[in-house]
Amino acid sequence: MHTIAHRIGGHDVIGPHDGRGPIFNPATGEQERNVAFANAETVNLAVADSVRAAALWAKSSLSARTEVLFQFRALVASHAQQLAEVVANEHGKVVADGLGEVARGLENVEFACGLGEHLKGSFAHEVATGVDVSSLHAPLGVVVGITPFNFPVMVPLWMAANAIACGNAFLLKPSEKDPSAALLLADLWEQAGLPAGVFNVLHGDRTVVEQLVTHDDVAAISFVGSTPVAKHLYETGTRYGKRVQALGGAKNHMVVLADADVDVAADAAVSAAFGSSGERCMAISVVVCVEPVGDALVEAIASRTQQLVVGPASDPAAQMGPLISREHHAFVDNLVTDAAKSGATLRVDGRTCSVAGHEDGYFFGPTVVDGVTTTMGVYQREVFGPVLSVVRVATFDEAVALINANPYGNGTAIFTRDGGAARTFVNRVTVGMVGVNVPIPVPVASFSFGGWKDSLFGSHHMYGPDGFSFFTRTKVTTTRWPDPATSSVDLGFPRTR
Ligand code: NAD
């Protein structure tokens, strides 16, 4: 069985003592290949190569970097279909959804193409007599990206485009569940003219991550994944003196006020809950109905949900694919079963979903659970599956209090025709990304992406202006060209006047 290799310094590498991890096709449940799991020796080899590449790349001119970024942008665009198909095969999402992830990743490359503007420092003339001050943004060195299974193209592009534009070497540790897209990205960087080693790929699981996050030669860690791992890596990395941004999980609520258009809200809720089988950190997990909208809205959501087509990515009619693994399927199934036992109503029950010819695939049908309360596991846990919980509340204030009491704060949305209520909602919710009649408010690349509370550890959001700030450190230079004739000893602390 083929084993996927690391990409170090432009070469496919498998260390003599590396382990192996299985890669499954979630639509069939069959193992199709292995991926190498780096041992300590291979991790050191990759980091050493990244150190070498970082030293050279930091000296590259901004125009040379811009040229590479533009070439890379064109190559990602022309390979969008291939990237989406690679993702579909290992992740299970349908190709149209894969194309969407490529498009959103591409935005970040386009933003990074403007590096000449983003890396401009500042200058102040004559801050004191004969004294000027300037600042510049220097790269950090070797920066590591650790990414989740659910966006194997987009999330690496969130990080790598800006990190490389800033003059760093980027070392990617992709999810061990769907690592192939990372290698296709490495091919495209190489074709774009990026020197070997500036984008390296190292495979493995938590053991590799633990070594990277404490490695002396790693300057920064950019992480996206689940909250417990994000918190642990933030604490460990910062203890080892590294700059860390760690984005975690989510529990996104969509509030529907009584004045909302029920059909518009139902379309949005179904799209945002079940796209990519709910395996998105910005998926809507809970619809909060401010009564009396509940009955009409749940009816409209249920009828749309029943019409969704579940199937493998190879079926062009499929709108929603399988879950990532058998274990995750069992986790989602248990949460739904427990909710039903605790008194919730399964308006649409996806537990028995089976796709003809793919009986061993990890398919879970879209599920709508009404009458959910905050004590149920399906409410408390991040389900990360095609399960939409419905919570009914009596007032707008109750809806806001529910969201603000939740430990996560990634995304939220409100559906209403009342501009004043929407504005109050935006002001009061303790969530990083808010949609007004937009159910998945992922910011465009010229803004930055990030949640609040347990959805993000660190002070920088991801990509956009925060990305350039995260991947550089500022140096400020104060300059004077003194006249020897007026020079004298002065032990007083330098003053600007
Ligand atoms: P995960 O936390 O299991 O894995 C993420 C990465 O960390 C992988 O590369 C994995 O190999 C590594 N890892 C896993 N366990 C580890 C451990 N104990 N120590 C060190 N490294 C470890 O996440 P996942 O299941 O791949 O992805 C789904 C999660 O990611 C969800 O919680 C989702 O909400 C979150 N996510 C968040 C965002 C965001 O922007 N906030 C975006 C996408 C996904």
Structure description:
This protein is of the alpha/beta class and 497 residues long. It has two domains: 3-248 and 455-477, Aldehyde Dehydrogenase, Chain A, domain 1 (3-Layer(aba) Sandwich), CATH 3.40.605.10; 252-436, Aldehyde Dehydrogenase, Chain A, domain 2 (3-Layer(aba) Sandwich), CATH 3.40.309.10. Helices cover 38% and strands 23% of the residues. It contains 16 helices and 23 strands. Strands 15-16-17-14-13-19-20 form a seven-stranded mixed β-sheet, sandwiched between helices. Helix 2 runs antiparallel to helix 4 and helix 10 (262-274) crosses helix 11 (294-306). The protein is globular, with a radius of gyration of 25 Å. It starts with a strand and ends in a 17-residue tail after the last strand. The model has no long low-confidence stretch (mean pLDDT 97). Bound molecules: nicotinamide-adenine-dinucleotide. Nicotinamide-adenine-dinucleotide binds next to helix 8. The site of nicotinamide-adenine-dinucleotide has 27 residues, from helix 8.
